[in-house]
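FORM 7B - TANDEM STRUCTURE REPORT

SECTION 1: FIRST PROTEIN
SEQUENCE AND TOKENS:
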Amino acid sequence: MGDMFNTGIELMFIGMGIVFVFLAMLVVAVTFMSWTISRFLPEATDSLAGPRPKSVKQDEDDGELIAAIGAAIHRYRKDRPD
């Protein structure tokens, strides 16, 4: 009984070690790919940087859109029978 328990514990540690080594290799590979892409293809990482700052014209358009949505919600709630 004790021999079977020790074999199970040994197998558990071997399995966990293999998973740990695989995950560590995966982290290294992803880090290396990220570094390679940002080094040799900087234009590819620029598109992933996020949205560009809005211009003043876009802010005005957003204000009009918010006002229109607010008016539509107000009208919907007013016309809805309760």
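SECTION 2: SECOND PROTEIN
SEQUENCE AND TOKENS:
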Amino acid sequence: MSKKYVGWDEVSQGSVLFSFEEEFNALEAVHTKQEDRLYADTNSFKAYVGDWRVVKPVYNRDICIDCQNCWVFCPDTSIVSRDKKMIGVDYEHCKGCGVCVEVCPTNPKSLLMFGENEDSDEALAKWPEKKKKSKE
């Protein structure tokens, strides 16, 4: 029996687009590297979607504390982490939503949003200094 694929305009209300193949439990994904997960055909991991982006997160390794907040909260599994260490952003799947920046606890943040066409080295040169806390 072959699968019938439908377009975005044919999905009925209340349909569910699963992230993983049925035999792959989503809880298993937490302990599995991104490239080894059994993604469903409806997951953006299987398609290049980076051209949707207007702004992109740029990552500053010198500030990152490897808290993994960005990895946990990224809706598109675009944060690449190995052995609990942040190593970069998968720009082929990142849509530029900025969730990773919002959940970053460092001061200044280790991820900041920059224009899509801005070079990462130029962005790093513009990184803000640590903000001093006022004693008031």
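SECTION 3: OBSERVATIONS ON SECOND PROTEIN
The chain has two domains: 17-46, 48-118.
The CA atoms of residues 22 and 91 lie 27 Å apart.

SECTION 4: SIGNATURE
Preparer initials: ____
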